Amino acid sequence: MEPAFWQMPLKNPPQLVQAGRAVHGRRVKEEVFHLPELWCLHLYNYHGQLLIDGREFELKPGWVSVTPPNAKIVYRFKGESWHAFAHFRLPNRGDLVPMPVLQDLGEGYGKLAKSLDEAAGWLPSMPCRSSVRLWEILWQLVNQPFLEKAPRRQLHPALSQAVREIEVHLAESLSIPAIARRADISHNHLTRLFKAEFGVTAEGYIRQRRTERALHLLVHTTMAVKSIAAEVGLPDLHFFNKTIRAATGHSPRGYRTNYTTVPSSAL
Questions:
Q1: How far apart are the C-alpha atoms of 225 and 257, rounded to whole Å?
Q2: Which residues face 20 on adjacent strands?
Q3: How far is residue 228's CA from residue 244's CA, in Å, rounded to a whole number?
Q4: CA-CA distance, 65 to 61, in Å (whole number)?
Q5: Residue 125, phi then psi, degrees to nearest 5
Q6: Which residues lie across from 87 on neighbouring strands?
Q7: Dihedral sign of CA atoms 211, 215, 218, 221 in order
Q8: pTM, to two decimals
Q9: Which top CATH class is 155-260?
């Protein structure tokens, strides 16, 4: 198959909306997505298939894909499959550059994956820095390195490490004492840092970020509610429903019905 490209407007920085890691293929072998407003970038650690508006691509570990807004995206999994992802908006203006739909990162995979993890970790407290890091990643993918640096706002090193770990592993079971130990700080001290920076405890921060990601997936994807619950680390459907209702006043399905950007025919 001949290489495929999108014409991407990269003159202006993207707005990163969600980023992190996700696990698929546990319950279903195929999932369908439709994000009307958002570009998607995925880094793969598995073999599978990707269909974009009916065109089929093979996925392999160490590869990266970029998909445009409003495309019908179908994933076919071969067992449990995890990938890193970023959902983002791009201003539709400025010169266009050719962005490969799919490419093998080779030895550059680890470095790019680390950069994407950093973008995910910075998103809650430093969204501009997070979006600039994504912008740099996108320019690297079109082989035009972006050289400017974003101004940095410093978090306490232990808090910064804890936030990155939470963002990257949000779909997994998280232990605050274990996160604190890896950050070389006490549980109580970490709690004080979270309260000072975000106004909530570490546990409250995790709950908030899981809720935000769940609402994003409910509105912008066609994923089943059960799959969304598992992806945000709340696999107990009863507890997931209570969490969403407490945050929005709606059940997950009710929230999706009221606020979704996905055409009803795709749900």
A1: 12
A2: 85
A3: 12
A4: 11
A5: -105, -25
A6: 18, 40
A7: negative
A8: 0.61
A9: mainly alpha
What pLDDT is attached to residue 150?
A: 33
Distance CA 38, CA 115 (A): 20
Q: How far from 203 is each of 92, 122, 219, 246, 249, CA to CA, in Å?
A: 38, 18, 25, 16, 21
> Which sequence spans correspond to the domains of the chain?
1-153, 155-260
Counting runs of H as helices and runs of E as strands, what totals does the chain give? 9, 11
Q: Which two tokens stand for residue 169?
A: 């592993």
- Tell me if domain 1-153 and domain 155-260 are identical in fold: no
pLDDT tens sequence across 109-161: 899 999 999 999 999 989 999 999 999 999 999 863 323 333 334 678 899 88
Topology of domain 1-153 in CATH is Jelly Rolls (2.60.120)
Q: Which residues, listed in sequence order, are joined to residue 97 by a DSSP beta bridge?
A: 8
Q: What angle, 0 to 180 degrees and rounded to 10, lies between the N-to-C axes of helices 187-198 and 202-220?
A: 50
Helices (H), the chain: 109-122, 127-141, 157-168, 176-182, 187-198, 202-220, 225-231, 237-248, 252-259
Tokens 């969304």 sit on residue: 228
**64 within 8 A of 42, measured Cβ to Cβ:** yes
Neighbour tally for 151: CB within 10 Å: 8
Chain position carrying tokens 């390195």? 145
pLDDT in tens, 53-108: 888 999 999 999 999 998 999 999 988 898 999 999 998 877 778 888 999 998 88
Residue 170 near residue 210, CB atoms below 8 Å: yes
150-199 pLDDT, tens digit per residue, is 333 467 889 988 988 998 888 899 999 999 999 999 999 999 999 888 88
